[in-house]
């Protein structure tokens, strides 16, 4: 740690950094930032930076509002979009109470706590997200809704297109920040893009996702367009998911790999999937945390709607990707419900907790889905045991409030805050009279 701190202080001096932003997230997953002068960094390392936690969504109760942000020197990076004028760097922070205890409602701590539980069982948790988002001409919209920057489709190559320059600039910036990118391409919707981050341990991935969203927003502003991670911004078009590939390692060995087993998937891997399936509905209010998230889940276009798994089956909630011969380390499972607007710290904590529960309790993996699940009738799906995911945020909250797994993983304060905050969102949504109702009913009734 001292070496890392020395490196940070030396780099600030050598690069002429004028501001250091301390980053953390609230319970919803909104990035928070406070800038300090270089002279204050050493003090922040030693003692943390005090702030009023009650002003941040869900972070603390008013009567215990004093919190400290402790910068994590291993996350230090100079921000490339700031340029050389007034060079600015950032570090992620861990939040504590004044007596040095981790703040129970710090999302980064929630994930750290779950990773520690995995470590006690001998596992390291790796994740690899595929992050989709839309590029729009602006954040304002007319009666036809938001206007995408192009009308291209999946993998389309658009000569001179906005998306090309945008992705090239974003990927270069991410690489400058030490975030490795595996792929980038145009997605299925007009103006929709996907950038996949290389796999890393889950805490680094969650930090990278928060940085990624900021980079994408900054590049969009620079290029005169608007980027959104809203799960379903365009009616009748694909939603934006954050399919995440996951694996557990025991030391250098992939715990999901077993040579000669079906799909080379070990017993541990099968139990992990069984845990994800059994608890999918309970964790949905976090993996899909907005009213709009359920428009994506139930809108077709490759979003999963039913709880089942399959080998290379893109209609299933969980996919076991094609095994590459001689690449045992690449055995993994892909969770397809997660959307791009989730709080990555809380979502990964719950996905890991659900998988670990499957391993601890020895859950049996049900038979795989071999058909296109969307093309089956409701009767066929029922007969095969493919239960639906929640149809709405309200429905997801009903599952969550009865879940011991979610309450235990998030901790009482975060659990209660998420429930209260999301119930409020649902009530506001439910009480609206929408254009759909007016168009359909006003003249007829």
Automatic annotation (TrEMBL):
What keywords are annotated for this sequence in UniProt? ATP-binding, Ligase, Magnesium, Metal-binding, Nucleotide-binding
Named cofactor requirement(s): Mg(2+)
Annotated ATP binding sites: 182, 245-247, 314
Taxonomically, the superkingdom here is: Bacteria
Q: Name one GO molecular function term.
A: ATP binding
- PANTHER family xrefs: GAMMA-GLUTAMYLPOLYAMINE SYNTHETASE GLNA2, GAMMA-GLUTAMYLPUTRESCINE SYNTHETASE
Domain GS catalytic positions: 107-445
Give the co-factor note. Answer: Binds 2 Mg(2+) ions per subunit.
Q: In which family does this protein belong, per the annotation?
A: Belongs to the glutamine synthetase family.
What GO biological process, any one, is recorded here?
Answer: glutamine biosynthetic process
| Record-annotated GS beta-grasp domain positions | 15-100
State what protein this is by name. Glutamine synthetase
Q: Which residues bind Mg(2+)?
A: 130, 132, 187, 194, 243, 334
List of residues binding L-glutamate: 296, 302, 314, 336
Pfam families for this protein: Gln-synt_C, Gln-synt_N
């Amino acid at each position: 740690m001292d070496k890392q701190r020395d490196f940070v202080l030396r780099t600030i001096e050598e690069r002429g950094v004028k501001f250091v932003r301390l980053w953390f997230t609230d319970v919803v997953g909104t990035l928070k930032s406070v800038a300090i002068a270089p002279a204050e960094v050493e003090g922040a390392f030693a003692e943390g930076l005090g702030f009023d936690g009650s002003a941040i969504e869900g972070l603390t109760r008013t009567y215990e509002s004093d919190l400290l942000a402790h910068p994590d020197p291993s996350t230090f990076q100079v921000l490339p979009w700031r340029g050389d004028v007034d060079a600015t760097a950032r570090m992620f922070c861990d939040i504590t109470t004044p007596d040095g205890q981790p703040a129970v409602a710090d999302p980064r701590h929630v994930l750290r706590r779950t990773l520690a539980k995995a470590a006690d069982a001998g596992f390291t948790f790796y994740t690899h997200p595929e992050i989709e988002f839309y590029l729009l001409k602006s954040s304002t919209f007319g009666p036809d809704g938001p206007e995408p920057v192009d009308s291209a489709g999946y993998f389309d190559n658009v000569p001179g297109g906005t998306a090309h320059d945008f992705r090239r600039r974003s990927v270069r910036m991410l690489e400058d920040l030490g975030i490795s990118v595996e792929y980038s391409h145009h997605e299925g919707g007009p103006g929709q893009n996907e950038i996949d981050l290389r796999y890393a341990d889950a805490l680094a991935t969650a930090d990278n996702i928060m940085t990624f969203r900021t980079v994408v927003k900054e590049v969009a502003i620079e290029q005169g367009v608007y980027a959104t991670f809203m799960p379903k911004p365009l009616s009748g078009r694909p939603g934006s998911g954050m399919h995440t590939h996951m694996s557990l390692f025991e030391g250098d060995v992939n715990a999901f790999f077993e040579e000669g087993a079906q799909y080379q998937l070990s017993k541990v891997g099968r139990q992990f999937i069984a845990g994800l399936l059994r608890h999918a509905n309970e964790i949905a209010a976090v993996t899909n945390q907005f009213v709009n998230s359920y428009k994506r889940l139930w809108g077709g276009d490759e979003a999963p709607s039913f709880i089942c798994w399959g080998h290379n089956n893109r209609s299933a909630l969980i996919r076991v990707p094609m095994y590459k011969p001689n690449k045992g380390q690449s055995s993994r499972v892909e969770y397809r419900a997660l959307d791009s607007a989730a709080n990555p710290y809380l979502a990964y904590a719950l996905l890991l907790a659900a998988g670990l529960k499957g391993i601890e309790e020895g859950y049996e993996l049900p038979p795989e889905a071999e058909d296109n699940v969307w093309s089956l009738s409701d009767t066929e799906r029922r007969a095969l045991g493919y239960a639906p995911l929640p149809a709405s945020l309200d429905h997801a909250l009903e599952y969550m409030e009865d879940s011991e797994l979610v309450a235990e993983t998030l901790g009482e304060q975060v659990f209660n805050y998420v429930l209260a905050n999301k119930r409020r969102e649902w009530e506001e949504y439910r009480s609206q009279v929408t254009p759909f109702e007016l168009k359909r009913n006003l003249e007829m009734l």
